[in-house]
Design a protein that fits this description.
Protein name: Conserved oligomeric Golgi complex subunit 5 N-terminal domain-containing protein
Number of helices: 7
Number of domains: 2
Distance between the termini: 111 Å
GO biological process, one term: intra-Golgi vesicle-mediated transport
Shape: rod-shaped
Radius of gyration: 54 Å
Number of strands: 0
Structural class: mainly alpha
Pfam families: COG5_N (PF10392)
Strand content: under 5%
Order of helices and strands: HHHHHHH
Length: about 260
Amino acid sequence: MSKDDAEPSYIDYEAFLDPDFSATSFANTLVLSTNNPSDTPLDLSTPLSRVLFDVQEVDTHIDTLTTKSALPLLEHTREHADSSARILHEVEGQVASLTESYRTLEKEVIERYEVAAQVQLTAERLCETVKLGRAVARCLMLGRQLEVRMAELGGVGSAKKEDHRAMVRSTDTILSLRQILSASKPGEEGEGLDRINAINTLKAELVNPGERSIASRANQVIKEFSMSSLLSSSATASSASTFSQNEDTKARTTSALQTLYLL
């Protein structure tokens, strides 16, 4: 509305529309302008009545403007509503497209990833199980081999002739078992074997007693060699049987020394 078309008004609209307008300062100025500073008490009814009159004047002015400009205001409101509807329609279409894309992504990627993660976990556990099963099978095979080789040792209390070389073979099997059982760190061959009852039984009932038995047998052979050396040094006979016995004693002693060295 131009200044020529505007109705005359004593209200200073520019002061009220100023960004720096302060209601406190305006009220203070109004009270001072309607009262004598020396009067006590202050008269607040006059400034209050003026403020109420100004509010009524503004309300009347708003009503007049809206009445005269009803059609432009309604047209502006309709255009604003139409624009909002168009924007909402476009936004809803984009949201629907985005929602459909997310559902497709969830179905083709997220769900498949979850299934793949479960398959991966299953495969990893199967690999661990197979690896542990192989280690257990190898330990049991070596345990059986140790039993056979210790039986080949023969000797005292056995009808079989002593095979002193079986001490070295048994020791080699024990070392192989030791190597597997000691490799218990993550990723190594013997990881998890300490949780298998069969392996713990194998260690307690075969490996450890067998190692002690072989070490004791080797020490006994070395002691017998020491005694036979003393006896042979004092003897004067040099028959073929004595030579054969000495060679056999040396061979047994060599096997015993190798056994103790390996253990």
